[in-house]
Each structure stands twice: as structure tokens, then as C-alpha cells.
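Batch manifest, entry 17 of 40.
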Amino acid sequence: MSFESVLPIAQAFGFEDPVVFLALLIVFSLVLLLAIFVPIIWYIIGIAKYVYPNARANAMSGKLLSKTQYSEMLSTRDASEVLSILERTEYEPYIVKTERIDIGLKKALLDTYKRILSMAPDDVEKPLSLYLKEFWFVSNLKEILRAKHAGKEPTYVPWDETDRILQDYASSSDTDELLSKLQDSEFSSVIAKALPEYKRTKNVGYIENALDRWVLETTVGYARLPVFRQYLEKLIDVYNIMTLLRLKKIGAQTDIVRGMLIPIGRLYKKLYAIADAENPDAVVLSLEDTEYGEILTSVRQEAEKTHSLRPYERALNKEVLRFIKSIALGNMLNAGPLLSYIHSKTVEVANIRAIIHMKAGGFSEKEIEEVINI
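Output type: C-alpha cells
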């Protein structure tokens, strides 16, 4: 294109010099291209960092116990046969050289957490590390609490061996001393709310529930990643539903119930409004128009027949497992697969521990199936 042919166009735009016009045209074109392609490039860079860790997480998910392996463990005669099955899995190095199977299994889970964190992108590693460390600390604290309540020696596996706080809690002479220490700790506010019911019933479940609340309330505050926050809010919804059901089962007053709910999550306002429900059944009926309605009503008859909340808890736990797996499938280019594997592995270890303990206790296959989450 000659200057002569450009001159009329430049003059039409108010330019006498076609060179200036062409220079500005080139600059404008470059800016336009940058505006179009830079976001695309940044998007590609943003998702590329998830490709490798998600591929690893998916490969690790393929090694989770299958339904066939669960069936084999459930049909065994005793705990030793369960261990024989586990020796043919990736748990083998954690159980063959330990006298405390619980400790071996917890070490296997802790190694999994650390492995995932080591390969997670920075924007995932930081919040996930905070959550897992808080969750791990509280899970150990609950182990110590149960042991003290039962008059047994506690077994726990700290995140690292320099954890002096857990050592101090484990050195408590009994439950009362441990609770006294917790009242002077960062857990004081949630422990204070649970103490009245604990003192009335001597059921440490109220304290455990309070500690779970602390983890969720603490970690959701720094869950900036949308997929991570969705996951935590799902856990909070389930926590709040079960808290409401448990408190209504014992006839707790409305103001007490509302004070025990975590004021976060998609279902909080609804649960707050129905906190004056007469009993658990009334709670379930009031939730029929929510995403949990069908889940709860599907086991309502079983709950009424057994006079237990366990069917609701089992159904809700399965819903969380379904939800986190769906997150993984729908979010292959963010933290979905990492969260899904962590949750699934945590559930798996809990299932294995339950099967071993219940087999040792002489429980039937059906009774064990009602406890585990697969």
C-alpha cells in the first residue's frame, strides 16, 4: 500500500501526515492484540500449574480401595484377616512393622497430606496447608480426649515431632484436667459452649463437636479459592444439620440450638429459622425443600425405626463424598482433584480403622456397613 493510497484515509481521520497515521494505527493494533491475547496467555499459565498435580492426584485416586476390597474386609472373620488384605495394598509398609495399627494408619494418612501439599501450586498449598494442619491437630486432640475419657493411654501422631502442645494435652491426668487446659487455649470459646451439655451427660461427643466447629470456623475465613470454599461450606452445612438434629433429639432450647450453629454456609439461615422445631423429624420435614431434602427423607423411616440419628449422619457423609467427587470431575483445571483425593483418603482411613476395631469387637458385617462411608 503506497502513501498516496493511505493519504485520503489519514486525512479522513484528521491526519495530514500518513506516516503518523500509520504509526498510530500500528500502535493501536498492537494494544488491541495485547488486550485480546494477554488474558488468554495468563489463563493458560494459570491452569497449566494444575495439570501435573491433578494428574498425580488422579493416579493416586486409582489406588484407593475398591468396593471389592471393602467387601473382602467386611466378610473376614476377624481383624487379623483384615490386616492380611491391607498387606496387599499401599498400606503394607505402615502396618507390617508396627504394633499399633492406628498409629500406622494415621502415619499413612499424614504422609498423604504432606505428599499432596508438596506438589500443590502455591495458591492452593498455603490455604490447604493451614486447613490440614488445623484438622490434623484437632483430630489428634480428639484421640487424646477419647483416651482420657476412657482411662486409656492416648495414641496420636503429631504433624511434626516438635509439637509440644499435643504432648502437654496428652500428659493430662484425666478428662477434667485436659478440659481445664482447653479452656485456657484458643479453643476456649467453643469449649465454653459445649461444657454444660458435657457436664450434664458426660458425653465427650459434645466436646468433639465443638472442636470440629473450631476447625471449620477458623479455616473457612482464609479459603479464598472458590472450589475450596465450596467444599468447606458443604462440610459446614452437614455439621449444622447434624448439630440441629442432635440437639433437638435431647430437647435443647431454641436459643441454645441457634448458638451452636456455625453462622456460615448456604443452609444457615434456614436452619436458624427452624431451630424451634419440636424434634428431629420436624427438622427433616422442614428441610424437604432444600438440596438435602431427598437425602434426609430417603432414610427417615430407618431413623424412626432404629430411634437413631445414625442413618441421617451416614446419608449426609455420603453426600459430602459425592459432592467432592463431582467437584473433581467438574474442576480438572483447578484444585478439585486434590481436594477430592484428600477427602476420599481421609474417609478411607477412617473406614479401615472402624472395620478393624469393630471386627475386633465382634460386630457383624451389617453393623459395620452401617458405620463406614463407601
